[in-house]
Design a protein that fits this description.
The N and C termini lie far apart (45 Å). 39% of the residues are buried. It is built from 9 helices and 17 strands. By secondary structure, the protein is of the alpha/beta class. It has 3 domains: 65 residues, Dna Ligase, domain 1 (2-Layer Sandwich); 116 residues, Elongation Factor Tu (Ef-tu), domain 3 (Beta Barrel); 153 residues, Nucleotide-binding domain of ferredoxin-NADP reductase (FNR) module (Rossmann fold). The strands form 4 sheets. It has a 6-stranded antiparallel sheet. The N terminus is likely disordered. It is globular and about 60 Å long. Bound molecules: flavin-adenine dinucleotide. Flavin-adenine dinucleotide binds next to strand 8, strand 9, strand 10 and helix 2.
């Protein structure tokens, strides 16, 4: 066994790569697996491998970056303030990508499909879970990734439908914590064309699907929305509609008691979710987020923009960018801290409004957002996935 954990600076923020054989489901037991764990979970993983009769082939430091200095109170912004780069959010090399491709997709089985909306909500949004058991390799993923779905049937040219991507809404352990399911949050696309209602192909296929049905799944894909490993990171989340999917994975990882027990990740930073929806009935996973806020008031803040029910300062509809403007000082103070990451997800149309709000807030502090944003992006602290 090769063991390399060189460097003098050990801290919980470092990630280790463990190569193991004989550890996993029956189908993958003989395969060599690479597992990445934060230092804080390394010992527990070793114990689990030993208990299940696995053989550790090597352990090495996936990221030798020393832990960043402890968070300091945010200083007053200055024009010269450089955007500091945080250590890479997670070791990208360790993130699973394209385990299943469109030519030979994994066939998952639907276990649940239920509406996430309250009475009187606009449209249709469902939470759908697929069983991933029996894959070789096992289809696994991390928070912030997406999977592809290939809907049954053919397109107008008689060809099989192309895949559509969906952000994963469950943590890597799945909603059942068994590590063998994946969940999505899907809005049915519907629009009017020449007096006719057109239903989106894949979103309708998914919203209508029954438990027990088999579905072609590809992926996972995506490294843009990965969560930092640092337990002291701060995470600002800007979501509209189904853009909540990756945020749900982060928040479950941070605050859901059973998930925390499973992942051993002791989040100590500040998480702030801005959620935009047209009506209260359209808020997604709202009860869970309210519960996290009451159980972890020091670590989680939940700010809602409900456009058809709330008014902004000008008396117009309250959109997410209005909430960003209202809280601009605090948001900017957080962004000045190199441990802060911002995540934006939802319909592409949300981007200009957020940009406008950030530009105005930056200008009030003598900063130029058009210069600052690329710096944050380069520092891997500004994460956007819109569609
Ligand atoms: C990285 C990523 C993550 C995503 N995550 C999610 C997610 O978590 N949840 C989710 O619900 N979706 C998500 N999507 C969107 C998803 O991939 C599909 O695009 C969406 O479900 C629509 O697919 P469909 O097959 O139902 O629609 P299609 O049948 O493919 O129809 C879409 C097409 O309809 C046309 N169209 C759409 N609106 C109109 C309009 N108003 N007027 C005229 N024509 C129009 C456009 O040509 C458009 O390309 C994500 C997309 C990406 C890229």
């Amino acid at each position: 066994m090769r063991v390399s954990t060189t460097t003098s600076s050990r801290s919980d923020s470092r990630v280790f790569t463990v190569v193991v054989q004989g550890y996993g489901t029956a189908l993958t037991r003989n395969a060599e697996r690479t597992i990445n764990v934060p230092f804080s979970r390394l010992q527990a993983l070793m114990q689990s491998i030993s208990q299940l009769g696995g053989k550790v082939l090597s352990v090495s430091a996936a990221s030798d970056a020393p832990a960043p200095a402890a968070a300091k109170p945010a200083p007053e912004a200055t024009k010269q303030a450089p955007v500091k780069k945080q250590a890479a959010p997670v070791s990208h090399a360790a993130v699973p990508v394209n385990l299943y491709k469109p030519k030979s997709p994994f066939i998952g089985t639907v276990t649940e499909n239920y509406s996430l909306l309250g009475d009187g909500a606009i449209g249709r949004v469902n939470h759908i879970t697929f069983d991933l058991k029996g894959g070789d390799p096992q289809l696994h993923y991390v928070e912030g990734q997406s999977i592809g779905i290939i809907p049954d049937g053919e397109d107008a040219n008689g060809k099989p439908h192309k895949l559509r991507l969906y952000s994963i809404a469950s943590t890597r352990h799945g909603d059942n914590l068994a590590g063998d399911t994946v969940s999505l949050c899907v809005r049915q696309l519907q629009y009017e064309k020449e007096g006719e209602t057109i239903n989106g192909v894949c979103s309708t296929f998914l919203c209508d699907i029954e438990p027990g049905a088999k579905v072609k799944i590809t992926g996972p894909v995506g490294k843009e929305m990965l969560l930092p490993e640092d337990e002291d990171a701060n995470v600002i989340m800007l979501a509209t509609g189904t853009g909540i999917a990756p945020m749900r994975t982060y928040l479950r990882r941070m605050f859901e008691p059973s998930e925390r027990e499973k992942n051993g990740w002791n989040f100590k930073g500040k998480a702030w979710l801005f959620m935009g929806a047209p009506t209260t009935a359209n808020l997604l996973y709202d009860d869970d987020f309210n519960r996290y806020e009451s159980e972890f008031p020091e670590n989680f803040r939940y700010t809602k923009a409900i456009s058809r029910e709330q008014q902004n300062a000008k008396g117009g509809r309250m959109y997410i960018q209005d909430r960003v403007s209202e809280n601009a000082d605090e948001i900017f103070a957080m962004i000045e801290n190199p441990k802060t990451h911002v995540y934006m997800c939802g319909l592409r149309g949300m981007e200009p409004g957020i940009d406008e709000a950030m530009s105005a807030a930056a200008a009030a502090k003598g900063l130029d957002w058009s210069e600052l944003r690329p710096q944050l992006k380069k520092a891997e602290r500004w994460h956007v996935e819109t569609y």
